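3.2 Worked example (two chains)
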Amino acid sequence: MAKRCIFCGKEFGLFGGCLIQCGDSDLSVCSACYDQLSPLSPKERAVKALATGRAPNPQELQAWLKQDEAWLEEERSRLERARQAISTDKTCLRCGGPMERYGDKRFHLHPTVQDILSPVWLEVEVIRCARCGKAEFYIPQPPDLPEIKDNPPDLRPLTRRNPSPGQILAGMGANPPGKNNNQIKV
């Protein structure tokens, strides 16, 4: 029994045709139409099959196309929400395009032998231009400042309990540095 190609209408024998996916179903086509239509997507082939009027199940193809369009619309809105979530109010310094959040990155600073036990990390926020791809680094929050004491141990005031090196030498009978050492006591 001969089959008919749904695209060109040509009849072909039992082994002269091929199956091609149109929408969510496989339809019989001749080998010439298969070669011509195989690069197209299943959605494009379904639209062409409906346009010929020879599709064996047009209601199913139309329902599939509506379902696919609804899925695409949902996907577009999801992508738009995702783009809004990563967008920033900054513009690219190079091209003026919108900047988008790209994520956080940790950099190891001063990788030396001493840092093995206590490494120093810098956390930055990476912002990327959506148009040209230029990236900028921002420190998301100021670092914790070390506590500064009023009288650090190195700069303690000179008192009787904390004598200067010159006072120590003078107490030992030596002249402090800067004094005239040429005096002789008789």
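3.2.1 Second chain
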Amino acid sequence: MPPLSVRQQMRWRRHFWVLLLIVALSTSCAPDATNSTGGAQPPLTDALPTPRLDGIAAERREMRFASGDAVLAGELDLPPGAGPHPLVFIIHHSGPVPRDSYGYLAEILLRAGYAVFRFDKRGTGASGGVYGCCESDDALAAYRAAVVQPDIDRCRVFIVAQSIGTQHLASRFEEYVQVQAPRGVALLSSLLRADDIVRVEAPIIVIVADSEPDLNAIGAEAVAAYNALFSPPAALYIAEGAEHTLFDIRDGPIDWTDPRWVERYHRGAMEALVEQLDTWRDTQASGSCSFSHAPYQLIQRHRGSAARVNPEELRNAW
């Protein structure tokens, strides 16, 4: 092949750079890992083994409920024996996690005699919608659906919130009370400092890992702020050798891609949780556990004419 002339070399180089530019532009415009509405859909990398509920769940009740424009999926697991059963309602930690992220906790609580409600976050599992929004709304919608289920003892409803779930709960706790006042609240991997924890006007236990960088603020200081306002005092359990979500790392870090991670939950933390739930469950409730429905029944009677609602009657209903 004869050597290229200077003009041919310049033309070839120009074509080369044009081709390179086209490749670069096509790469930058390539679709990324997003959903059809443009929102990010991060991949779920955790291995989620199916909960081992055979023999410990008398019924696994599949449920659907609405939250905004999405239909979400949940599951109510009932323990053996005659109901109604005390209910533990779980509010998730962060991330696109389905119900089976808490399958290990369902196993623990069912064995202790509790019904358990778990749900698939929006855009995960069997839930519709797109992950990345509305987590606070979705958790509250799930709570509304859970507490009205048959076989549930509405006098003994407990909320277990973890990590960012503790913030979702605290920010809207009054709305949870309007649906059904919980007998107790467990704040796992709590993110609540003194100013936020006092929004949770219910008996509480705070369970946090000793590895938390702000341990004092979310532990002792937060509990002291709560105890200055409410009685009975809050309980505090610090899990030694645990990472943030209360899995035991004393034998090394957790490999979340290994399904056996579920076996490494912190035994002391879960024992403290169940022990506190049992204490609340066995304590006689004062007054009516269904008091929170009275304002809604009152407003329903006067629907269409808010001026007819007597403020004093409404205060008494609360």
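3.3 Remarks
Residues 6-28 form the longest helix (23 residues).
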